[in-house]
Amino acid sequence: MFHISTLNQIKIAYIGGGSQGWARSLMSDLSIDERMSGTVALYDLDFEAAQKNEVIGNYSGDGRWRYEAVSTLKRALSGADIVIISILPGSLDDMEIDVHLPERCGIYQSVGDTVGPGGIIRGLRAAPMFAEIARAIRDYAPESWVINYTNPMSVCTRVLYKVFPGIKAIGCCHEVFGTQKLLAEMVTERLGVEVLRREDIRVNVLGINHFTWITEASYRHIDLLPIFHEFSAHYGESGYELQGESWRDSVFRSAHRVAFDLFETYGAIPAAGDRHLAEFLHGPYLKQPGAWKFHLTSVSFRKQDRDEKRKETERLIVQKRGAAGKASGEEGVNIIAALLGLGEFVTNVNVPNQGQVSNLPLQAIVETNALITRNSVHPIFSGALPKGVEMLAARHVSNQEAVAEAGLTKDRALAFQAFRNDPLVTIDRSDAERLFHDMLAMHQMM
Questions:
Q1: Peptide bond before 152: cis, by omega within 30 degrees of 0?
Q2: Structural domain boundaries enclosing 196
């Protein structure tokens, strides 16, 4: 059974421990949280990157956490209480193919890591990697709790459960947090009441990752949906920018015009950023991203960002400095604390559907709120998606199941069926076959 002898004996296994993003956020959050201490085993195929994070991690905080780069999954997982997965399935060169090769067929993607041609190929590439991870968890840490941050979230988490049905895994995503911030600013503007924390906006969340929806929202006793209807109507054409976050200044920001447009159609609040929402639909958004006030995130930008982070890594090591000792805004540490019995916590997670989304298939990976307590994650019943949204989401649920299965079995025919079934693949069959074949060939897959 799940057990730690004391809170000073926690072991976290970090798969993708050379990460310069998610891993550094964890280091920052652990360094300022005084409830826990222990060891973090950093495993990465790039062992040198994990070694550098070991140095930075051990400079972080007051020494309550010891970081160690390890060379095998077995060493990382043995004795682990918590497993965190944040890997890049492949390389940024692989992602460049995923995102930009379809452009020759007129298919543009704003992210390319969840759905669309890029998300599907990435899922096929990730499936055997996650199968290996699932088997290792089964063999070396079967009672651990697993937190996955890797995209495509639904496919990766589904593979974990298909390979090791007894796994205790959740997928975590911060997209809902941005919508809570939007609602908080709406309350301030429309009601003149300052919302101190975005968590004070209570939401009923349901859907699938990056295509998640809010059917109920409140602040204290106030129903926010009627207010959002007015807010959306007012800003639908011009867009709304969060305080200090102009959509022009960052490829990751938007003015929420896509979300407003979808709300006006379906009557529920989309709880993801416009870049993600746009990829789930065949519509006008990706044809004119500038008009809709969001960006297509190029992989050249990601490579530039990676290079800057590498330089920062070297600076931290030379200066003998740790990760920034401030809250990242992520909830991983609060989730870990709740699983270890240090209070209860409610947040949105991705887990197999046990009926918490009543009109999506059972066992599909869905995103809803969950109550997290000691050694337990209880999905909260969230009801049914609006019928129009259900029709859109169901198509992607079927595709994600097919991608997980095809990636595990190397079923090329099934993989192509999922590829062609994606709403962004509007080209004829022969062009779709050629694109699919070329993408697989360039990745040397299947």
A1: yes
A2: 92-113+175-297+330-446
305 class by beta-carbon count within 10 Å (0-12 exposed, 13-18 middle, 19+ buried): middle
State both tokens at 180: 């809570």
Q: What CATH code is carried by the domain that includes residue 79?
A: 3.40.50.720
The C-alpha atoms of residue 251 and residue 259 are separated, in whole angstroms, by 17
Report pLDDT for 387.
Answer: 98
Q: Residue ranges for the binding site?
A: 151, 173, 210
pLDDT tens figures, 272-290: 999 999 999 998 999 999 9
CA distance 331 to 441: 39
**What's the angle, vertex CA 293, arms to CA 274 and CA 349, rounded to 5?**
15
Residue where a domain stops, chosen among 174, 192, 221: 174
Q: Are 210 and 114 in contact (CB under 8 A)?
A: yes
Active site residues: 174
259 and 211 inside one domain: yes
User: Does residue 315 fall inside a structural domain?
Assistant: no
Binding site as annotated, residues for Mn(2+): 173, 210
Selection from 145, 150, 169 nearest residue 22 by Cα:
150
Q: Supply the pLDDT for residue 31.
A: 95
Q: What is the DSSP letter of 101?
A: G
